[in-house]
Amino acid sequence: MFNRKKQPPIKSLISHGSQLEGNFGFAEGLRIDGALKGNITGLPTAPSMLVISESASVAGAIVADHIIINGRVNGPVHARDILELQPKARIVGDVSYKSLEMHRGAVVQGRLSPLVAPVVEDEKPTLKLAANNH
User: Fold this and answer.
1) Is residue 24 a contact partner of residue 36, using CB atoms and an 8 Å limit?
2) pTM of the predicted model, to two decimals?
3) How many domains does the chain contain in total?
4) 73 occurs within a structural domain
5) Whole domain around residue 30: which residue ranges?
6) Residue 96 lies in a domain
7) Closest CA to 30 of 47, 48, 16, 50
């Protein structure tokens, strides 16, 4: 209806009290309420959505299409499409995104880098100056 893409369903959960170590790849949706030490990657085979809740902490690089953060992240964050930083988000690391929504209270200690689509320059017509003949 409002030109919004349908979000992938959350099919995986790392629950509160859980602690995982190692790299983690996921398809579609993942919600983290616990702690994860390692890189998290949304697989490029389908749209991916990652939710890091208020109680969650992640130490490692994050890559996904749509990322919502309200917890702690220590590492770089790369949102291929949308990054939402909710009020209790705390990120130590560089952040790249196509679209950013940042709520009051969210903190990023690092660089914010928008992903800009390469601009294809059309060939410009050659300008010809009219000669001033007297």
Assistant:
1) yes
2) 0.82
3) 1
4) yes
5) 10-113
6) yes
7) 50
Contact 93, 75 (CB under 8 A): yes
132 lies in a domain?
no
Closest CA to 50 of 38, 33, 37: 33
Q: Token pair for residue 68?
A: 């919502």
Task: Please report, for residues 15, 29, 120, 126, the alpha-carbon distance to residue 32 in angstroms, rounded to integers and kept in the order given.
Answer: 6, 10, 39, 56
Query: What's the CA gap between 79 and 41, in Å, rounded?
Result: 10
4 in a domain, yes or no? no
| pLDDT tens sequence across 65-116 | 999 999 999 999 999 999 999 999 999 999 999 999 999 999 999 999 998 8
Query: How confident is the model over 41-77, as pLDDT tens digits?
Result: 999 888 999 999 999 999 999 999 999 999 999 999 9
